[in-house]
Amino acid sequence: MAEERRFRSASGVPIALRRRQHSASCRELAVRGPRLQLRSLSAATSAVWLAAYGLFALSENSMVLSAAILITLIGLIIYLHFVKIDQESLLVIGSLGIQVTSSYASGKESTTFIEMGQVKDVVINEAIHMQKVIYYLCILLQDPEDPQGVSEVVPLFQSSKPRLDCLIEVYKSCQEILEQRKTAPQSS
Amino acid sequence: MVLKVFFPSCCSSADSGILIGRWISEQNSAVILAVVHFPFIPVQVKQYLGEVQHVSKVSVSVIGSWSNSKQEKEESLSEFLEDLGTIFCHEPWIQISKEGDSKFWSCSTLQKHSKNPQEEEIILVYYDQCKVMLSHLHPPLDTAGQRAEDASKLSAIFDTVARSQVLFMTDRYDEGPIKLTHWQSDGVEASIIVELLKQASVPACMLLTFLLSLVSGICRSRVLKFWPLSFLWSKLSTCEQLGHRLQHLQVISSNKKAQNQNQLMRKANIFVSLLIDVALGILLMSWLYRKNRIGHLADTLIPVADHVAEELQDLLQWLMGAPAGLKMNRALDQVLGRFFLYHIHLWISYIHLLSPFIEMILWYVGLSACLGLTVALCILSDIIALLTFHIYCFYVYGARLYCLKIYGLSSLWRLFRGKKWNVLRQRVDSCSYDLDQLFIGTLLFTILLFLLPTTALYYLVFTLLRLLVVIVQGLIHLLVDLIDSLPLYSLILRLCRSYRLAAGVKFRVLEQQDGKPLRLLMQINPLSYGGVIQTYRLPTYSCYPRDSWASLCKKLFLGELIYPWKHKGDKQN
Lengths: 188, 573
Known about the structure:
By secondary structure, chain A is an alpha+beta fold. Chain A has three helices and nine strands.
């Protein structure tokens, strides 16, 4: 079953959290940020082209116009393919692992899969970012030598930055599945 | 505890039969490798599996049954399949059944000696057998050493499929007692071109080894080791590059088969890099010789050298006057200026002596561009070094003079304050000087101090010129290193067959139905391009920079000679 709720990100932008339960030990949590608005795209393009026309009027060189078009196209492609993240999702499969996916506006998806044996815990941490204190969810990875130690911290939802209420929902869902591995007697 | 079944997607439409694969008890997962169809004799199946186990060292066994019924569920078949569980006793016995064209399969386990009788959850993971078999899993780069013993669960699965290659050798056209379905059951794939290349590579390697032994024998002969020649070879970067390429050729032409993935990729990378290098070199050569461009180049070389010498002469005249409004010491200025001007005059004469031979030399040297683009770039760098040799000489003269002056000044400054450098103790000690020592010392100190600006200005100008030449040469060497170390074969593999270089896996959740097991699709997550370059970079012979910025500035200030680019063979000083 799937349900969707609206929250706000740390900077006040509206985001949506979608929860799907595929089976008793498999859950998918996706945080969707706002899509690229036509307004901001047209505003940016018009600003660049107005500047280019101004330069053209001053210098009488038509290369300025072609350079402006090229810059706009390449900049848009780079922005959509490498910068603008539409949706970040977390797929927790008990006894297999946790999969973190970021989907970009151009359709590209970058995925990381962390096996359950390496996951120590999922926690909410605080961080001081410029003048704000923000909360973020992170996965703690087990240190292979030291059973009590943490070898790495993997932060989640870094581009959408949900607020604490959204993070608590995600945290509760993850912990329900992570607890199942503690109750199972045979685990490696 | 959750049971994970890894099912190959090529067997989804196979007829009913029994499943063979590997059961990994510590992960509670079963990796299914193939389906054996009816009719079969259980003894023969066990014998066949024993042989496979012996060859591949993978504990393959019969782990369950598979029923694919086109119509409604057949009761007799399901009972028959359960009875099979008693013949091939395996704990737990996995039963997978598919009805008609339904996407949702039912999966159950039979546990005879089960301690916990509750229904355990089953996860069905589909995987692409061909891709998983060919793929190479790369561990995360920072923990490659530590995690080797604690092999991850996924690498066990990849390992199982990769090592069971012998199981996939029989296809359905073979006349054997066992009929299997796996990814190659429709016929073993092979490529004629690859087979031909493999056959041709053995004599080609032997020929190459023979030629290389001849060439290295000549290089190592005593004739070329006499002092002036060996000094020349060590200074020319072309010889370094040629030696590097010779080493590469030796690696490729060796008869030993590559032991592991890394060595194989390294050989392939060196081969492709050499090929592209030579192709680009031949392209460059054809461009240079097409409209006799090399002749034009040779014709412009002498005027360029003349122009550089004229610019230097103008610069020296400027320094001998009042450069930038500074007032120089007239006598020293004239001496230094005339000395350097005479040098330039000598240099111009030598260049003009050589001018009739330049075109011929350049024509023959240009032919060596067919050995590779890197060799051509190294030759260019060497030509620049030879043409600006006078700048290098001036830099050395200016630096030595300045260095002498600075050391003299520092030592006389200590005398001025009544101190002395103790060589034994490596520290400054106080010392009582005689009156005449103090007198002469102070006189010399004053002379050196007031002559310092003139020497310093000459040193500054020539150091800047030398640094300019060094930067240009450095850029050329950077390009050569880039071409040398780029793993082109790995990059092309990542572009065309991205599943071969795996950084990990990714799971996709397929359509679910209540009551049926969870269905996941396991796909290979390829290594990023940056990761590919980092893992498979070819080692080069130079490392930069030799000095950190702080020590470089200190050397410049004190007038010590700087050699910014170090080669791996150089001794540390």
